[in-house]
Amino acid sequence: MATVKDLYKITALTNLHVGSGDQNYGIVDKLVQRDPLSRLPVIHASSLKGALKIYCREVLGMTEANNPPFRNSFGSEHNQGNDKYFSAHLLTIPIRSNVKPYFRATCPSILNEIYDLMLSFNFLATDNFLLAIKKLKDACNRWDKKFLVFNDLPVNAIIEEYAFAGEFDNKTEVFADNKIRDDLGYKKEDLVIVRDDVFMEICENLPVVARNRMDKHKNLWYEELVPRQSEFCFFYVGAKENRVAILDEIVKISSQGMPVQIGANATVGYGFCKIEKSAGHEAR
User: Fold this and answer.
1) Between vectors from CA 180 to CA 48 and to CA 106, what angle results, nearest 5°?
2) What are φ and ψ of residue 143, in 5° steps?
3) Distances from the Cα of 3 to the Cα of 79, 84, 95, 233, 284, angstroms
4) Which residues does 110 contact at the CB level (< 8 Å), separation at least 6?
5) Cβ partners under 8 Å of residue 266, min gap 6
6) Nearest-5° angle of CA 107, CA 126, CA 7?
7) Cα distance between residue 193 and residue 281, in whole Å
8) Phi, psi of 100 (to 5 degrees)
9) pLDDT (tens digit, 9 = 90+) per residue, 85-144?
């Protein structure tokens, strides 16, 4: 049985709230899951695997009885699954601009971590995604400006509160190798690399919305969100036949109008996501 190692990208089509379950005594009652080391938003492996399992049951009609790959991958009541689904770590987050609704922003630390993980999982050195990550992270390690963009922007451009004219002079750099951007799967003028400290500040101040409980108590609470169009990536290691029967089907169906729902509040439209394969290979 061939083993495959794959990297998948999750795009949040709607606002996402995968709750941490932590007790919080500040103004925000319900916080999103965060990586315990970086404090960046994350989808823990148990939450992700559970969402994919429910999707296979309810959308693809798979059960332990009628689908051996489903049983082998996710396990059953008496046996654990054989495949490994890793936590989904933040890849990009949308940041506002006056020249377009948003840019997709990432940071050098994220690029370095993805590259190191891909090496740890022995991804092929010829993989276009891996090569693009390497070239981009190497470029990022040579600069200390707040933003790295792939195209010239108008002088009146603003990214978050930073203006390209005036106080933003000498704080940005244009990266000319658009093939890297293309190999990562991004469109023209879509991707922005943000210095680590700026990116952390953005992620520490995620949107917060007020919610009302629709019952006689009418309680009000506040909920942290990961904004729509945020992207995560996760690793899958498992049997090729399970991948073909499950994740390949999820990728196909989630792009055809049946997105995967991850996290809480599905009835108010939260957490609907598209899943795509970014890179992968069979283990030797």
Assistant:
1) 45
2) -130, 160
3) 20, 11, 38, 20, 8
4) 40, 89, 90, 91, 199
5) 272
6) 55
7) 28
8) -160, 165
9) 999 999 999 988 888 888 888 988 999 999 999 888 888 766 788 888 888 888 777 776
SS3 track for the chain = CCEEEEEEEEEECCCECCECCCCCCCCCCECECECCCCCCEEECHHHHHHHHHHHHHHCCCCCCCCCHHHHHHHECCCCECCCEECCEEEEEEEEEECCCCEEEEECHHHHHHHHHHHHHCCCCCCCHHHHHHHHHHHHHCCCCCCEEECCCCCCCCEECCEECCHHHCCCEEECCCHHHHHHCCCCCCCEEEECHHHHHHHHHCCCEEEEECCCCCCCEEEEECECCCCEEEEEEEEEHHHHHHCHHHHHHHHCCCCCEECCCCHHHCCCEEEEEEEEEEECC
Token pair 């601009």 is found at 97
Can you give the pTM of this predicted structure?
Answer: 0.88
Single-letter amino acid code for the residue at 240? K
Neighbouring residues of 141: CB distance < 8 A, sequence distance ≥ 6: 108, 112
Q: Cα 23 to the chain's mean position, in Å?
A: 25
